[in-house]
Amino acid sequence: MNIVKLSTVALEKGTIVATALRLLDELGLDGLTLRRLAGELGVQAPALYWHFKNKQQLLDAMAAAMMAAHMSRPELKEPDGWREWIAGYAHSERAMLNSHRDGAKLVAGTRPSPELFARVERAVAGLESAGFAVGDAVRGLFAVSGYVAGFVLEEQADRMRSDVGHARPDMEAFQAAYPRLMAGLAEVGDPQGDRSFEGGLQLVLDGMERRLGAQSTAAAGADQVSQAEGETAR
């Protein structure tokens, strides 16, 4: 273990956060404590409180550091390209959450930053420019983000799950007992794999596209009614 001796120099926030993220990869979220972090930095635990009042503030800063590159992704510029833009956003979010052990648990348990609210505000505006009602724009973003977070949570849990003490299933018996499930899995692939992720994401985007189409049809119908009423009034 490399211990950075900082007891005689000023401790910087960036150093604390970077070290905490490294320990997160080694120990997991449950194993990360302020005492262990202080020991890794070569200081006493009270020294950390100059920068973070409690562990939650540290976790918030760690999540913000993880999300920095993801938050800098380009905004939606071409309304007709909204579907590809959201797909890119989802893949970026998955990569971000997977950039550190227990990343999904960490981000889910932290408080959203002002920068995140500003990012979502701009994303909603972009989807409105593509024709979405404001409520459906928010629902769509929440649905995609929730799908990604849930997928990565299972993905990361599956990596840490131990098969020690569990006998391998009899696949022939499993096939006989659950033929529809096995047929579906043959098409889907690894439930925590890339093909599964992409398939689920496309289902969410299909729902958004259908809602957008319904809105466009309703708007066109309303315009026709308004035009007919105007001609009648003449």
TrEMBL record:
One molecular function GO term is: transcription cis-regulatory region binding
Q: Tell me the InterPro entries matching this sequence.
A: DNA-bd_HTH_TetR-type_CS (IPR023772), Homeodomain-like_sf (IPR009057), HTH-type_TetR-like_transc_reg (IPR050109), HTH_TetR (IPR001647), Repressor_TetR_C (IPR004111), Tet_transcr_reg_TetR (IPR003012), Tet_transcr_reg_TetR-rel_C_sf (IPR036271)
SUPFAM superfamilies the record matches: Homeodomain-like (SSF46689), Tetracyclin repressor-like, C-terminal domain (SSF48498)
| Gene Ontology biological process terms, A to Z | negative regulation of DNA-templated transcription; response to antibiotic
Region Disordered: what ranges?
A: 215-234
Keyword list (alphabetical) reads: DNA-binding, Repressor, Transcription, Transcription regulation
- Superkingdom of origin: Bacteria
* Protein name (Swiss-Prot/TrEMBL): TetR family transcriptional regulator
